[in-house]
């Protein structure tokens, strides 16, 4: 399967699309970050390190305005590519996702006559039919749990891991617990490890702590 393309204008959209990308085959996917996303360069480096997406930075502020007249769509698309430094190859992607098609990037997709999916800015839009709707707070904690495990393992996503194979589940008591599948479960078995998880929320931030212990 081909990778997907995700176009984001806010940090929240980045998180939503990263969760969506982690569930899809074809990794690494491509994520276009508009210059409107805060701390774009630093965020791009962190996203690239996950192995789930590779980032492209596009500065839409370089676009001066609309193009009119004969062959306006084609001329506008070429002008965007020259000024903003990015050209879409639609055939390279399975799906193209964008949250704001009123943006310069959205207009570029339309000028290219490239089919795309207009996304909801919600975590619920990332879920499969077998999953329940989670709150923003819980989704943030679940993602923090994935990051905490990868840091404890010391390999990041450069190892045999995929984000969708590392889950934070809740026991009947409400206590969080890791559940592994695929290559992640195999890695845990081969290294004779068990993972302990603690989750917390403080001041609007989600915190996760992972401890890997050797099974005896």
Number of strands: 9
Low-confidence stretches: none
Instruction: Report the sheet-strand fraction.
Output: 15-25%
Q: Could you tell me the mean pLDDT? A: 85
Q: What percent of residues adopt helix (DSSP H or I)? A: 25-40%
How many helical stretches? 6
Largest sheet: 5 strands, parallel
Which term fits the overall shape?
elongated
Q: How does this structure look, described?
A:
The chain is an alpha/beta fold and 216 residues long. Helices cover 33% and strands 24% of the residues. It contains 6 helices and 9 strands. It has helices at residues 11-22, 40-50, 72-84, 104-111, 136-153, 182-190; strands at residues 5-8, 29-34, 53-58, 96-98, 117-118, 166-170, 176-180, 193-202, 205-214. The strands form 3 sheets. It has a 5-stranded parallel sheet with strand order 3-2-1-4-5, with helices on one face. The protein has a two-stranded antiparallel ribbon with strand order 6-7. α1 links the parallel β1 and β2. The protein is elongated. The model has no long low-confidence stretch (mean pLDDT 85).
